[in-house]
Protein backbone atom coordinates (compact mmCIF):
# COMPACT_ATOMS: atom_id res chain seq x y z
CA UNK A 1 0.00 0.00 0.00
CA UNK A 2 1.31 3.44 -0.85
CA UNK A 3 2.35 5.50 2.19
CA UNK A 4 0.34 8.50 0.98
CA UNK A 5 -2.82 6.36 0.88
CA UNK A 6 -2.19 5.25 4.45
CA UNK A 7 -1.65 8.87 5.52
CA UNK A 8 -4.93 9.85 3.83
CA UNK A 9 -6.84 7.14 5.69
CA UNK A 10 -5.43 8.34 9.01
CA UNK A 11 -6.22 11.99 8.22
CA UNK A 12 -9.75 11.01 7.22
CA UNK A 13 -10.35 9.43 10.64
CA UNK A 14 -8.36 12.04 12.58
CA UNK A 15 -8.92 15.28 10.63
CA UNK A 16 -6.75 17.49 12.88
CA UNK A 17 -3.81 15.09 12.76
CA UNK A 18 -0.38 15.75 11.36
CA UNK A 19 0.72 12.52 9.67
CA UNK A 20 3.94 11.19 8.19
CA UNK A 21 4.04 7.69 6.68
CA UNK A 22 7.11 6.15 5.08
CA UNK A 23 8.36 2.76 4.03
CA UNK A 24 10.08 1.26 7.05
CA UNK A 25 12.60 -0.94 5.30
CA UNK A 26 13.30 0.74 1.99
CA UNK A 27 11.52 1.71 -1.15
CA UNK A 28 10.69 -1.80 -2.36
CA UNK A 29 9.15 -3.25 0.79
CA UNK A 30 5.53 -2.24 0.26
CA UNK A 31 3.95 -3.82 3.31
CA UNK A 32 6.28 -2.55 6.08
CA UNK A 33 5.49 1.05 6.98
CA UNK A 34 6.43 3.57 9.66
CA UNK A 35 3.99 6.28 10.75
CA UNK A 36 4.26 9.33 12.96
CA UNK A 37 0.89 10.77 13.99
CA UNK A 38 0.35 13.90 16.10
CA UNK A 39 -3.27 14.56 16.99
CA UNK A 40 -5.35 16.43 19.57
CA UNK A 41 -7.53 13.29 19.67
CA UNK A 42 -4.71 11.63 21.63
CA UNK A 43 -4.95 14.07 24.56
CA UNK A 44 -5.54 12.14 27.76
CA UNK A 45 -5.47 8.77 25.98
CA UNK A 46 -3.10 5.95 26.83
CA UNK A 47 -0.52 4.93 24.25
CA UNK A 48 -2.53 1.77 23.57
CA UNK A 49 -5.69 3.82 22.97
CA UNK A 50 -3.80 6.21 20.68
CA UNK A 51 -2.57 3.29 18.60
CA UNK A 52 -6.06 1.78 18.49
CA UNK A 53 -7.40 5.04 17.01
CA UNK A 54 -4.86 4.73 14.20
CA UNK A 55 -5.51 1.02 13.66
CA UNK A 56 -9.26 1.72 13.55
CA UNK A 57 -8.59 4.27 10.79
CA UNK A 58 -6.77 1.63 8.75
CA UNK A 59 -9.44 -1.03 9.29
CA UNK A 60 -8.98 -4.13 7.13
CA UNK A 61 -5.86 -2.72 5.46
CA UNK A 62 -3.92 -3.88 8.53
CA UNK A 63 -4.65 -7.49 7.63
CA UNK A 64 -4.63 -7.25 3.84
CA UNK A 65 -2.27 -4.50 2.62
CA UNK A 66 -0.02 -3.68 5.56
CA UNK A 67 2.09 -6.40 7.11
CA UNK A 68 3.77 -4.25 9.76
CA UNK A 69 3.35 -0.69 11.01
CA UNK A 70 5.95 1.00 13.19
CA UNK A 71 3.78 3.56 14.93
CA UNK A 72 4.67 6.63 16.97
CA UNK A 73 1.79 8.70 18.29
CA UNK A 74 1.80 11.95 20.24
CA UNK A 75 -0.67 14.46 21.57
CA UNK A 76 0.46 17.95 20.42
CA UNK A 77 1.90 18.97 23.83
CA UNK A 78 3.81 15.69 24.18
CA UNK A 79 5.17 16.09 20.66
CA UNK A 80 6.47 19.57 21.49
CA UNK A 81 8.41 18.01 24.38
CA UNK A 82 9.75 15.13 22.26
CA UNK A 83 12.91 15.40 20.23
CA UNK A 84 11.36 14.18 16.99
CA UNK A 85 11.63 15.75 13.54
CA UNK A 86 8.43 16.02 11.55
CA UNK A 87 8.36 16.22 7.79
CA UNK A 88 4.79 15.82 6.60
CA UNK A 89 4.34 13.51 3.65
TrEMBL record:
<comment type="similarity">
    <text>Belongs to the BolA/IbaG family.</text>
</comment>
<dbReference type="InterPro" id="IPR050961">
    <property type="entry name" value="BolA/IbaG_stress_morph_reg"/>
</dbReference>
<protein>
    <submittedName>
        <fullName>BolA family transcriptional regulator</fullName>
    </submittedName>
</protein>
<dbReference type="InterPro" id="IPR036065">
    <property type="entry name" value="BolA-like_sf"/>
</dbReference>
<dbReference type="Pfam" id="PF01722">
    <property type="entry name" value="BolA"/>
</dbReference>
<dbReference type="InterPro" id="IPR002634">
    <property type="entry name" value="BolA"/>
</dbReference>
Amino acid sequence: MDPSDVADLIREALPDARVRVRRARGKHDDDHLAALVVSPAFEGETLVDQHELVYDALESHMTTDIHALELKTYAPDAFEDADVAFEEA
